[in-house]
């Protein structure tokens, strides 16, 4: 069995293109589109594969788009298991506006699952003779999946000694945290939703993240802050880093890359500081790549070395 398993209940084929200017009504002549396999857990698995991690992506897919998704994953040589569903897998669409540098992302809800379909993922994991070291639950829940779908998977995996990593949003995030996970990666808006507070100042971010740890909902909270960087909070430590300065081509998949590199590093017994550095490096490397292409290993290693050399970059308190 792979050491790291990712679960994607609502995958997608991600379509990315560009146009000079987005305008209503007019036909807009776009550049040639690129298609990539997408969805939170699938993106995590793609980055893990590039870093040399031992990973298996488990996902639900169906219809013609589902076959396209399988072919795209095979082309990247990403080990995966497709659990079939009756409905058509979704597509997501992003457009880069070249005249302004703005990126527009159009995200569809995904197919409606039956109870048997979403449960097949839980059944697959439970039936594994040898559980993974890490289980990454990432991405949105599709229509038809209950709000506690991730919580059910997390609870069962924890019972077998698996370290569960969670990256989702809304009620699915709050419910899964009640089951308890090893690591959770919220955005600032997601942390605000969990706490019910505005969280304007950095000390408030740290306090809200630490509350999650103190309540036993997660051992590690990795809070991503976009162009303000990120922070990591545990029971006795806080690590803070500003954003790494890069020329942004696309922000798609940066958070997934952060999760992938952090899990990959922790699974290699890296220190928390170095795992954080790798996470920041992978997220920054993904920002360089247009559309949904995600990071390149050489860029990740280059940025990681720069972060190691920058003594003042990582602050521990």
UniProtKB/TrEMBL annotation:
InterPro entries hit by this protein: Carboh/pur_kinase_PfkB_CS (IPR002173), PfkB_dom (IPR011611), Ribokinase-like (IPR029056), Tagatose/fructose_Pkinase (IPR017583)
GO molecular-function term, one example from the UniProt record: ATP binding
Signal peptide bounds: none
Pfam families for this protein: PfkB (PF00294)
Keyword line: ATP-binding, Kinase, Nucleotide-binding, Transferase
GO annotation terms (biological process): carbohydrate catabolic process; small molecule metabolic process
Gene3D superfamilies referenced in this protein's UniProt entry, alphabetically: 3.40.1190.20
Membrane-spanning parts: none
Superkingdom, natural source: Bacteria
Ranges for domain Carbohydrate kinase PfkB: 19-296
Sequence similarity: Belongs to the carbohydrate kinase PfkB family.
Protein name in UniProt: Phosphofructokinase
Native species: Paraburkholderia graminis
């Amino acid at each position: 069995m792979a050491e790291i398993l990712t679960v994607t209940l609502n995958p997608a084929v991600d379509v990315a293109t560009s146009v000079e200017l987005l305008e209503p009504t007019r036909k807009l002549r776009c550049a040639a589109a690129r298609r990539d396999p997408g969805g939170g857990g699938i993106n995590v698995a793609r980055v893990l594969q590039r870093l040399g991690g031992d990973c298996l992506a488990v996902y639900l897919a169906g219809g013609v788009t589902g076959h396209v998704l399988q072919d795209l994953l095979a082309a990247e040589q990403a080990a995966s298991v497709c659990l079939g569903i009756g409905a058509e897998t979704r597509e997501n669409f992003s457009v880069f506006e070249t005249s302004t540098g703005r990126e527009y992302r159009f995200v569809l809800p995904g197919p409606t699952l039956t109870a048997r379909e979403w449960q097949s993922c839980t059944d697959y994991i439970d039936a594994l003779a040898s559980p993974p070291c890490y289980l990454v639950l990432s991405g949105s829940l599709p229509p038809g999946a209950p709000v506690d779908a991730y919580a059910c998977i997390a609870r069962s995996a924890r019972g077998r000694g698996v370290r569960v990593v969670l990256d989702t949003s809304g009620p699915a995030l709050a419910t899964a945290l009640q089951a308890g996970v090893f690591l959770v990666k919220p955005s600032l808006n997601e942390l605000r939703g969990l706490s019910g507070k505005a969280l304007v100042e950095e000390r408030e971010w740290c306090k809200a993240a630490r509350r999650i740890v103190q309540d036993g909902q997660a051992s590690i909270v990795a809070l991503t802050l976009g162009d303000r960087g990120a922070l990591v909070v545990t029971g006795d430590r806080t690590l803070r880093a500003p954003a790494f300065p890069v020329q942004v081509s696309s922000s798609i998949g940066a958070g997934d890359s952060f999760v992938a590199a952090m899990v990959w590093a922790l699974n290699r017994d890296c220190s928390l500081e170095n795992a954080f550095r790798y996470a920041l490096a992978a997220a920054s490397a993904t920002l360089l790549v247009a559309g949904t292409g995600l990071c390149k290993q050489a860029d990740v290693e280059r940025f990681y070395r720069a972060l190691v050399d920058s003594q003042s970059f990582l602050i521990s308190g």
